[in-house]
Amino acid sequence: MSRRGLLGATFTSVAAAWMGPRLASASDLGSAERLRRLYSNRFVFGADGEPRITIGLMQGQRTVRIGCEAGLLVALSGEDTTVLEAGSRWTVRIGRSTPGSVRHSLVLASLPAYDAAAIDAKAKAFRARGLDVDLHEVGAAFGVRGRSLDARRILLTTGTFGSPSDAHDVARLLERDLGITPRTHPVIDRRASGIVIGTDAASGATLRAEGVLWFRPRDGKTPIVIEDVASGGIHGHGERSTRAYRGEVYVAVDKDGALAVVNRVRETDLLAGLVPAEIFPSAPFEALCAQAIAARGQLVAKAGTRHLADPYLLCAHQHCQVYAGVVREDPRATRAVEHTRGRLLLRPERDVLVDTVYSANCGGHTEDNDAVWPAPADPRLRGKPDPRLAARFPAGIGEDNLHAFLTDASPAFSRPPDGRHAESYRWRAEVDLAQVSRRLAARGEAVGRIREVRIASRGRSGRATTLIVVGTRGTRTIHGELVIRRLLGGLRSSLFAIADLDTARGTMNLVGAGHGHGVGMCQHGAMGMARAGWSHARILGHYYAAPRLVRLW
Fold first, then answer.
1. Which neighbouring-strand residues pair with 127?
2. Residues 55 and 177 reside in one and the same domain
3. What's the rounded Cα separation, in Å, for the pair 283 and 417?
4. Is 67 exposed, middle or buried (0-12, 13-18, 19+ CB in 10 A)?
5. Which residues contact 130 (CB under 8 A, 6 or more apart)?
6. DSSP state for residue 42 in the 8-state scheme
7. Which residue has the higher pLDDT, 22 or 106?
8. Distance between CA 314 and CA 317 in Å, rounded?
9. Is residue 221 part of a domain?
């Protein structure tokens, strides 16, 4: 059998490779090791020094169709040097499988792993309130260019529950009693297992593998095509289309015993398909560079902290970052990615990544991270006014100046310049109070017919963080920026004032600002700054409070 390396191997001994119409299960890694690596939170670095990142495209599939014009190489693992030179189209289906077993815990807080004192203090505070607290480490630590980067976090969790719904019931109690909105953390008892069956469309040859099959372009560069990829989420929501992806693709058994489709791709190629899906590719070049650096930071920071029960690091959707593959690539965005290759933001005080979160439009004022998420105050993520509004609103937005802020007509950096996308900066919405009442009832917090709605607390930017709803059957207090937005029908942001509450008609009219959570970089603001001649370093310095911009690969 001849072996020529990762992308060039071919079977020359047909007799050794085939058993009737099937391929013998030859592999350079044992089955257990192949599957373990799918769930590893470690980065794999290629010979070019760039990390390879695994992105979940779909899961819950029974059948998957894969193709490549250059032909495919098929292997049993991503590290095999033994591969089969196959045809250009394959169908993959799930054979016998067993779902995994996952329990769920509630995350009370998430803190940097290096901050032992803060972790201990926070754990003691929760225990003093009668909660059992466990610690879980997530994220990754790695060395590159002589630096040891620690992106690990410690989750403070409580309880274990058999289903997400049970966990959510307790989460609502914690939201009510503690004013926090916990998220769930998977506790894996047993990973899913099963047989993945691939069939070559041209020859009819079938390959059966334990847990996973890998596909690579035969020439090492032609994109791999996946049919029926859904646009709206990992579980197949939204419109479906055929999409092409660079790098490699593997099909693995997912946590429910169906198929997950995953793209392992070079970080630069990933960002080339991600940046224009997250920001307008027509944006000024320096804004594209800022976006590329912020997105790269999110890739590194989130890897190993999400999808812990899934056979990939991150997903291709808004939950992580939107990645659409080759179809969304744009030459200008790709040039920005290449121009900022390997550059990340580090904190001034130590070699720790800045959490480079971002949102579409801050509405003229960014928000403190701890006003939006259950996390300690981060000095790199403090809410601040748009530089062009700083003289008028230097101390933040509150009830006393909210009306002036919402009606301000100043040409802020975050204000779209020509009316396009104006609704991301200032907007109005009518809320159906009966719908709000039904959503509260679905949460187990029925209030009956709503008589009053008022905002009890706001963040530095004026975003509502606590909402009180009074009805004929009781009063409920709602905590959390995102929870409030969803309760009121999916608002663009929680930065709003109640302009009118008409209980007779059952409506509430809002005047609002911004699109998204508002923490970190404001994408429209970055574009405005770039139009004014700001460099990407200066833009990032404003939004993340003077970090260090360092090239790591």
1. none
2. no
3. 12
4. buried
5. none
6. P
7. 106
8. 9
9. yes
3-state secondary structure (DSSP) of residue 58: strand
What pLDDT digit, counting tens, does each position of 292-306 carry?
999 999 998 888 888
Same domain, yes or no: 209 and 265: yes
73 has pLDDT over 90 = yes
The reported pLDDT for the residue numbered 35 is: 83
Identify whether residues 179 and 274 lie together within a single domain: no
The pLDDT value given to residue 29: 67
- Our count of domains for the chain comes to 2
**Same domain, yes or no, for 208 and 321?**
yes
Last residue of a domain, one of 284, 307, 333: 333
Cα separation, 266 vs 7, in Å, equals 14
DSSP 326: G
Q: Can you tell me which residue has the tokens 């939006």?
A: 372
Structure tokens at 39: 């769930």
Check residue 146 and give its pLDDT.
Answer: 76
The per-residue pLDDT for 28 is: 59
**Structural tokens at position 391:** 């003289």
Q: Note whether residue 22 is domain-resident.
A: yes
CATH of the domain at 143: 3.30.70.1070
Residues 287-313 as b/e (b if ≥16 CB within 10 A, e otherwise) read: bbbbbbbbbbbbbbbbbbbbbbbbbbb
- Alpha-carbon distance of 512 to 430, in angstroms, equals 11
Per-residue pLDDT of 117-130, as tens digits, reads: 999 999 999 999 99
- Give the number of other Cβ atoms within 10 Å of residue 49's Cβ: 12
269 neighbors 247 (Cβ within 8 angstroms): yes
Q: How far apart are CA 3 and CA 17, in angstroms?
A: 13
112-116, 177-181, 234-238, 494-498: least confident range = 234-238
Check residue 324 and report its DSSP letter. Answer: -
Could you tell me whether strands 507-513 and 426-432 are parallel, antiparallel, or unpaired per DSSP bridges?
antiparallel
Please give the pLDDT value at position 230.
Answer: 81
- Alpha-carbon gap, residue 77 to 37, rounded angstroms: 9
In a domain, 446, yes or no: no
Backbone angles phi, psi at 348, to 5 degrees: -60, -30
In terms of residue numbers, what domain contains 170? 101-190
Looking at the fold, whether 272 and 137 belong to one and the same domain comes out as no
Tens-digit pLDDT profile for residues 340-374: 999 999 999 888 899 999 999 999 999 999 999 87
